[in-house]
Task: structure prediction
Amino acid sequence: MTIWQNMKRFSEKHSRKIVVGDKTWQYYCLGTGPPVLWLTGGLRRAAFGYSFLEKLSVHHLVIAPDYPPVLTIEAFNVAFDAILQVEGVRSVVLAGQSYGGMLAQAYLAHNPTAVERLILSSSRPADYGKAWLPVESACIALARLLPERSLKNMLAGGLLKLITVSESDRAEWSEALNHIMQDELTRADVISHFAVAADLIRKGSIKPAAYASWSGRITVLSAKNDPTQDKKDFPRYEKLFGRSVNVVNTGDMGHAGVLSDPDKYVELMDKVLN
Result:
């Protein structure tokens, strides 16, 4: 089966839906054991990580939502609360990959009692200053103005560059990405990507005071060849959370090791979780 076919198989087998406000949220729930809330990255579809999620679910209950085109960080937080409630889960290991790491930091600030520990993968501290607002606003404007097909092609090309895979697998990943971009995601999804970040910046909720009463452990998974991370991120994390951060080197797995090497990635996750 191709990557795209496996994604569809995974979705049909494990997907569930919940209506929160005026949006329908699709999420995947599989496995048994200690619960992990997995927040996927900017691809917005957790099924991209189907192989990793299935392997992680051998020893854990895994909950992984897709992202509908909402415009506020509050919409994410309220939806995550609702999903955990309907699944009867009171506390989780909260794990965020890339863009999902920003969402994870925001959810922890929103509901710290629901989070036992935090795992951030290929993600940066979300304590963005107001100086970032013009950048996000420019991205939103561009997303509204560009022809939709051109916008999707540009994003697909950029996202594919962040997936470290062999040349023999690149065609299949490209096919799967194009299916999502052209057939499922809309202009509203692209606008949502930047609008939620802008909303988080405006609210200024990611700050040390938000985590002062939370005592859980923090782990950051970082690859040496990830162009989106910087060594300065780690002291920023320590300042943000007010304690030391456990950094796990994922070697040369790149930005999306969860996709390119799910076996090794699960092995690292299991070590972190045990």
In short: The chain has one domain: 3-127+205-273. The chain has a mean pLDDT of 91. Strands lie at 15-20, 23-30, 35-39, 61-65, 92-97, 115-121, 217-222, 246-249. Residues 167-184 form the longest helix (18 residues).
